[in-house]
Amino acid sequence: MSLSPYWLRDNCPCAECRDPRTGQKLFQITDLPADLAITEQAEADGQLTVTWSDGHRSRYATEWFEQTAAGDGRTESGKRRWTAADFARGLPEADWSAYLADPAERVAVLGAVRRSGFAVLRGVPAVEGQVLAVARSFGFVRETNYGELFDVRVEPQPNNLAFTSVAIAPHTDNPYRDPVPTLQLLHCLRNEAEGGDSGLVDGFQAAALLREEAPADFAVLTRTPVPFEFRDREAELRAEVPLIGVDGLGRIREVRFNNRSIGTLRGLGAAELDAFYAAYRRFAEITLRPELRLEFRLAPGDCLIFDNVRLLHARTAFERDGGRHLQGCYADLDSLTSTLAVLERRLDVLDTLAELFAGEGAGEYLGEEVTMAQHMLQAGALAEAAGAPDHLVAASLLHDVGHFGGSGLELMRGADNRHSHTGADWLAHHFGPEVTEPIRLHVAAKRYLCAVEPTYRASLSEASEYTLQVQGGPMSPAEAAEFAALPGAADAVTVRRWDDLAKDAAAPTPAFEHFRPLLGRLLGLDGLDGLDG
Fold first, then answer.
1. Which domains does the chain have, with CATH numbers?
2. pTM (2 decimals)?
């Protein structure tokens, strides 16, 4: 395996190089020696071990090398480009109440916005300001000179053509802003007017067609800065960017397209201006192709969420006296993407835990009469039966997660596997300290109880007495006093007592699925209920 030394060392996953909780690096690239080299490497048991010229040793899971570059998902490589016919069977949509109640439904909606550029939520209460609740269900509202939210309806003195009844051609919003709001939401409150249908065009698809049909024109639009401008009594905004933004590899990353806001190009020669306008016209013609335009009508309670640096949105003209009222707001893709990733990660961790309990959990538990899974499930059940709060039930259930991966065998061979810390560090990527710190301290709690309660040690099982010696034996008076002062120490002692009792092979033991809703609550998978209405 041919490897770049600096790339490999920069990605060393050990606790000396990365904080085990945050994953952030603990060194600067300039801290590495200028003549860094690999002196030895060996592959065994699914791991590559590398010894470095400065004496450091790194271990990498071999499957890590097989991971492909995912990028940030913002370029065309992370999108599903589309035409109107691709949605002949229906739009990506969900009911608002289902979206709030079901994390998997939220993942589907947010994933559609990320991949296809839009989704529609149906049944959102048709009351003013509700669009803000939709935006806050996945991120933060982006306030602009239009305010926190804006009304899309006929205004007597409009400062934007959107606030009239005329037809609006496909465009992106706020191209004159830096940074531009990357998401827009439009929530329908009323729509009895004749006309006023909504339209969407995939700007990435239009740009890709331009690249395929006229590559020279595509190149012109990716390199020519275009001045976008907006001004009224309260604001004067300007941004100069190409109509089509690409990344360093030439992949389409952004489209800003709004003929109403393009200012005067200056500093270019006649030939350059001619080339720009020819390319601009060709691109505009592509965006107007009927097969690219997806048209639909928003009904009261519908909320459209769409990518404002990818999709061009449009509107047909409508009768000025008809009742049409939408409320909109802006948000940003990074918060939606973050929420989506966290939701997927939290659902994944529940699935991973279920697999661990069903798989390795069926194995022997340190010489006790119960399996590892039975022990942990019984501890969780004891905490639940005692009326413990959710975080202590979870800590009791998950206290021995650090044994998974075979480390329990090391402990029985006489080597302290520090499973309490390993488990707490892994869980800290998903759960808060109210869950992880009692787990981190539950081994120390056994040593503490042996020091402060004369009768406690006699109650330990034979296996637990053995591991006590491996883990350091009873605490000294000074160690016990230091432990008792730690945040989470009292909870760790409580978890420890349920840990000691959870070794009865005859005791009824619930399945892992019994605890899944509780773990979901702690992971924030039901945290949107308060947004309804």
1. 5-66 (3.30.2020.30), 89-338 (3.60.130.10), 360-531 (1.10.3210.10)
2. 0.83
